Amino acid sequence: MTVRHPKRLGMLAPSSNTVLEPETAKLLPTDGSVTSHVSRLRVVQISDDASSLQQFEIEPVLAAADLLADAAVDLILWNGTAASWLGFDRDRQWVEAIEARTGIRTTTAVIAINEALQRIGARRIGLVTPYVEALERRIIANYSGIGIDVAAAVRNNLTENTAYAAIKPREIANMVREVALTPVDAIVILCTNLAGSSIAPALSLELGVPVLDSVRVAIEHSLVFLGERPRVAEPEI
Predict the structure, then answer these.
(1) Is it the case that residue 225 has pLDDT exceeding 50?
(2) What is the pLDDT of residues 146-176, one digit of tens each?
(3) How far is CA 46 from its chain centroid?
(4) Distance of CA 177 to the CA centre of its chain
(5) Fewer C-beta neighbours within 10 Å, C or N terminus of the chain?
(6) How many angstroms separate the CA atoms of 109 and 95, rounded?
(7) Model confidence pLDDT, tens digit, residues 109-120
(8) Counting Cβ atoms within 10 Å, is residue 89 exposed (0-12), middle (13-18) or buried (19+)?
């Protein structure tokens, strides 16, 4: 008799991230058909200095992916947004390297976000981040490179990843409302350690513009990858 296990979503997470797992739990199917399993790579401080950028070298990523492979996961998701400032090619390189190493299908949060923007046909977006100005400039330049104008941006100017998780959903909502004062095709809450997942659907309804939260978009994208239907959003503020 063959025993069928739930589909296993393996996530690579920044080590200091505390928002990702609880928000993911809210988004997975309630019938237990998908379970999530996390491997971490060390990410503590996020800025544009050399030591911060070195946190995203490939070897630690592959080591963390090897541990997920031990759990026989069905998909590996890099649930971080570093490629938004390091360059979108970085995620494509990670996907290729992880798949070559583990033989497991792989995707990323930034790939999910950019595919969602493409489906919407977004050419002007609003950006909400916890990052410093130097990273925001890099993100804006990278989106410009793929034909998307960041027409409005609000940031918290923080470098400690643990501080990102302390930003209250109501503060994030107000940041979204601020960028929505500028006409845009979509608004992106860009960071998987910001608690924007639960409020994004309600903000989309309130503002009349798609609000894409990094965690929510990445998990919904991964569920489609796994042949599962994303949970119906329960808007809340």
Answers:
(1) yes
(2) 999 999 999 999 999 999 999 999 999 999 9
(3) 15
(4) 20
(5) N
(6) 11
(7) 999 999 999 999
(8) exposed
Q: Cα separation of 50 and 44, whole Å? A: 13
Q: To the nearest whole percent, how much of the chain has pLDDT over 90?
A: 89
Residues 81 and 135: their CA atoms lie apart, in Å, by 11
Q: Is a pLDDT exceeding 90 seen at residue 194?
A: yes
Cα gap 184→182, rounded to integer Å: 6
Rounded-to-10 torsion of CA 194, 198, 204, 207: -70
Nearest alpha-carbon partner for 10 in 75, 97, 67, 82:
75
What is the pLDDT averaged over residues 14-21? Answer: 96
Two tokens, residue 194: 């910001």
Is 126 in contact with 180 (CB distance < 8 Å)?
Answer: yes
Of residues 161, 129, 128, the one with CA closest to residue 17? 161
Strands laid side by side in the 186-189 sheet: 149-155, 124-129, 186-189, 211-213
Task: Confirm if 52 and 132 have CB atoms less than 8 A apart.
Answer: no
Measure the CA–CA gap between 32 and 23, rounded to whole angstroms.
16
Compute the distance between CA of residue 136 and CA of residue 84 in angstroms, rounded to an integer.
Answer: 9
